[in-house]
Write a structure and sequence with these properties.
Length: 499
């Protein structure tokens, strides 16, 4: 391609118009005319041809032989452009190809729409259309050092394309980029923690667990970062034996530290599942997962299989039938075995309280309500009497604890107006008469005894007037109850931190 270029014309400063206006040596109009055989003026010589003729004449004058083929003039002999604006339009067009839109009037006829084309033609039809989609006519001279609008537009388009492509390719390229950065900086994303851990946690290895099971238990409990890292270490550590039981470890331990801790007999503990009075079923399930090392799927499946535990016909949930107590961890037990132990314990306590088998369900539902509403142990029999008096008089129980349970919240007993007005909640005792359809907690001995041995009184209302001491006022009439409510409101104003 270099042999076909007129380097002197391309690199010389100025535009086409300036070069045409600049006279060449020996020609008054700036051109050496080549005439045909009949003397008529032919096409004008290019600058390359003119210089070649001058060189030939010089060699002839010096008596030097003429080459068979003329070599192009060396670009080193031509003037050097010192800015973009001094480049020949063809070179400038190559550098900004497809970017410069023609100004109105460019070309020799219809306007060009070649600014967005990738070829060189004009969509207007009559423009000659150079590279980059410009019109046929030469562009007017540019002001010195003025930035090309075409180049600016091209730059904006390039940036936009790069950004769009970068967003689309990020997901694919990010891991590779991170690897490169890691290789250059030495940083590396690891699949393991470092150190001996932070807060305490108890994990349980069940009878029959293999190394892979132990690794998953450690990750699930937050001890190791990934089960893969621990399992790889385990495979590289030879013959390692795990003893079933519970172990006191820490969260965020390195796999090496965790493995060493499991091999240390001093870390083996006698763990247990502790169920306080009033605990809801879903919280007991969570404790079985975290303490006994059981999976959520196994515990949830066992809880739903209500018919497997010998409960009265019609019982649809284990809620209320799991006696609050401390149950030691048995690594060989399944979720059903734990639940069965809790159900059996509840039945035994009902029997010890003198509850007939036919009355067990009623007592448990009633006791679960008293367990959530009463505060001080001495008030349990009084709270039971209030609810019983309301039942006897056909009044609604209006228990906030039942409403909250129906909304799925088992950790509070306060409700909103909207919740109390929601008749679609089957546990809403503001809207529905009688006891709730099922227990709302797992009651302990005090609540069971309160239901079977209610206090004597005509109370229909009660309200706790001091949340710090648990002091509760019981009233026979609504007017008395309103006075007690005002007392409670005054206490709240004096103790704004409780609001």
């Amino acid at each position: 391609m270099a042999d076909d270029l007129d380097w002197n014309a391309i690199i010389a400063p100025g535009n086409d118009a300036e070069r045409r206006a600049k006279p060449a040596d020996g020609a008054p109009d700036g051109r050496d005319d080549v005439r045909s055989a009949d003397g008529a003026a032919a096409r004008p010589l290019s600058r390359r041809e003119a210089r070649a003729r001058e060189a030939t004449s010089a060699r002839a004058a010096a008596g030097s032989p003429r080459d068979d083929a003329e070599r192009p003039v060396s670009p080193a002999d031509a003037p050097v452009a010192r800015s973009v604006d001094e480049l020949h339009p063809e070179v400038h067009g190559l550098l900004t190809e497809g970017a410069a839109a023609p100004a109105p009037g460019d070309g020799d006829g219809a306007g060009s729409t070649g600014g967005g084309s990738t070829g060189g033609g004009s969509a207007g039809g009559r423009g000659r259309g150079r590279r980059g989609g410009r019109g046929g006519a030469s562009r007017p001279p540019r002001e010195p050092r003025r930035r090309s609008r075409g180049a600016l537009i091209a730059g904006i388009v390039i940036v936009a394309v790069v950004l769009a492509a970068g967003i689309g390719a990020y997901t694919f390229a990010a891991p590779k980029v991170q690897q490169v950065i890691g290789a250059l900086t030495g940083a590396k994303e690891t699949d393991d923690y470092t150190g001996n851990g932070t807060s305490k946690v108890t994990i349980t290895i069940k009878q029959g667990d293999i190394g892979e099971d132990v690794a998953k238990t450690l990750q699930r409990s937050g001890v190791v970062k990934t089960s893969t890292a621990f399992y790889k270490l385990l495979l590289a550590s030879g013959d390692v034996q795990f003893q079933p039981g519970s172990y006191a470890l820490k969260k965020h331990m390195s796999s090496k530290a965790a493995l060493a801790a499991l091999q240390d007999k001093d870390n083996k503990v006698t763990a247990s599942i502790v169920i306080p009075e009033g605990t809801a079923l879903k919280d007991i399930e969570a404790g079985m997962v975290s303490k006994a090392g059981l999976s959520e799927a196994e515990v949830s499946s066992a809880a739903k299989d209500v018919s497997a535990y010998g409960l009265p016909s019609g019982v649809t949930t284990l809620e209320g039938w799991l006696f609050p107590a401390t149950y030691p961890i048995n690594p060989g037990w399944t979720a059903k075995q734990y639940f069965q132990s809790m159900v059996d314990t509840m039945k035994q306590h009902l029997k010890d309280a003198g509850v007939a088998e036919a009355d067990q369900e009623h007592v448990i539902v009633f006791a679960s309500l008293v367990q959530k509403e009463a505060g001080l142990a001495a008030d349990y029999p009084k709270v039971a009497r209030v609810f019983q008096n309301r039942l006897d008089q056909g009044m609604k129980l209006q228990s906030d604890a039942t409403v909250a349970y129906g909304t799925g919240n088992t950790h509070r007993v306060t409700t909103t107006d909207a919740e109390r007005n929601d008749a679609s909640n089957p546990y809403n005792t503001y809207q529905h008469e009688g006891l709730p359809p099922a227990p709302i907690s797992n009651p302990g001995d005090i609540a069971i005894k309160a239901v079977t041995q209610e206090a004597t009184g005509n109370w229909l209302y009660f309200v706790t007037v001091n949340l710090e001491t648990g002091e509760t006022v019981f009233s026979d009439t609504y007017a008395e109850h309103q006075q007690a409510v005002k007392q409670f409101q005054a206490w709240l104003r004096a103790n704004p931190s409780y609001q």
